[in-house]
Amino acid sequence: MLGSILDHAGAAISEMPLGHEPRARDFPRRNRLISGASLGVVVVEAAHRSGSLITARMAAEQGREVFAVPGSPLDPRAAGTNDLIKQGATLVTEAADVINAVAPIMERPLMHRAREPDSEPFETDPQTHDRDQIIGLLGPVPISLDDLVRMSGASPAIVRTVLLELELAGRLERHGGGLVSLL
């Protein structure tokens, strides 16, 4: 399987050494990496004590979208997904529900600014263009700090400084999972 991933996707992410035999107790660690590399996680079916719920919790902690497909309240295999919906996961009944939720994130352009050779590596004083660019990426739809850093090309310190300035000015709203949006 690893060879297939490397041949077709170009990368493999693991905390385990090459050749490690998978064990059941390793799945939560693996799923933390999967949820972190994803825009969101869709849970289709999960009992109350399900590994899928661990992955959903990790995704929420990482600021990723959590989606859940509802099930019959009489079916114990749907108890976990129904609880996720009660806790604020996005209810999913068709693929369009997921696409509509992640579209605003995917439609934002990726901006990568080359660093000047003599620039300070830990510059924390944002320039006007940094502020304008980061504010331009913000809107009413919550977005994660990671996405702001990736799309703006600014350092995490610059992005955090701009967000703090906006928050002190009463223009920023913080949401669960480390997400932010403009007021």
Short descriptors:
6 strands; 8 helices; single chain; alpha/beta; globular; 183 residues
Brief digest:
With 183 residues, the chain is of the alpha/beta class. Helices cover 44% and strands 11% of the residues.
Overview of the structural elements:
The protein has 183 residues and is α/β, with parallel strands linked by helices. The chain folds into 2 domains: 2-105, 3-Layer(aba) Sandwich (Rossmann fold), CATH 3.40.50; 123-182, Arc Repressor Mutant, subunit A (Orthogonal Bundle), CATH 1.10.10.10. 44% of the residues lie in helices and 11% in strands. The chain contains 8 helices and 6 strands; from the N terminus they run ααβαβαβααβααββ. Strands 1-2-3 form a 3-stranded parallel β-sheet. Helix 2 (27-36) runs parallel beside helix 3 (51-61). It starts with a helix and ends with a strand.
Mean of pLDDT: 82
Helix content: 40-55%
Biggest sheet overview: 3 strands, parallel
General form: globular
Q: What is the overall number of helices?
A: 8
CATH architecture of the largest domain: 3-Layer(aba) Sandwich
Strand content bin: 5-15%
Distance between the termini: 46 Å
Number of strand elements: 6
Number of domains: 2
The CATH class of the largest domain is: Alpha Beta
Low-confidence stretches: none
Give the spatial strand order of the biggest sheet: 1-2-3
- What Rg do the Cα atoms give? 19 Å
Map the helices and strands.
Layout: H1 2-8, H2 27-36, E1 40-43, H3 51-61, E2 65-68, H4 79-86, E3 90-91, H5 95-107, H6 128-137, E4 143-144, H7 145-152, H8 156-168, E5 172-175, E6 179-182
Parallel strand pairs: 1-2, 2-3
Antiparallel strand pairs: 4-6, 5-6
